[in-house]
Specification:
This protein has one helix spanning 2-11, and strands spanning 19-26, 30-37, 42-43, 50-51, 54-60, 64-67, 70-82, 92-94. The chain is mostly beta strands. Strands 1, 2, 5, 6, 7 and 8 form a six-stranded mixed β-sheet that branches. Bound molecules: zinc ion.
Length: 104
């Protein structure tokens, strides 16, 4: 099992830029993968100012994907940033992850 885990971590979702694997839990019925964006920050959707000031984070579950008889459960760590622009009315915002938008 250790060999499988190492190989899966090495994959690091090569088709999805900016996503890294935090942890991986593999058993007979379920493969659970914890991922998060690897970018340092995000742009405020209102004023466009870049921020790397993390306000907090929470888990989202974008999809449960069956794979070879096992369920693959993605746990996506989504961060909330503080907008650094004093005049912006949007004090905090959640990073946008386009591939995870549907059904999340
Ligand atoms: Zn802003």
């Amino acid at each position: 099992m250790d060999d499988l885990e190492v190989r899966l971590k090495d994959l690091s979702f090569p088709a999805v830029a900016g996503v890294g694997v935090l942890s991986l839990d593999v058993n007979v019925a379920i493969v659970r993968v914890d991922v998060r964006c690897t970018t340092a920050g995000a742009s405020c959707p209102l004023c466009g100012t870049w921020s790397d000031r993390v306000h907090g984070s929470y888990l989202r579950f974008p999809a449960d994907v069956p794979s070879g008889g096992s369920s693959v459960v993605l746990r996506l760590r989504v961060r909330r940033f503080t907008c650094p622009k004093a005049s912006c009315v949007r004090r905090t915002f959640v990073e946008q992850i386009p591939w995870a938008a549907a059904g999340a």
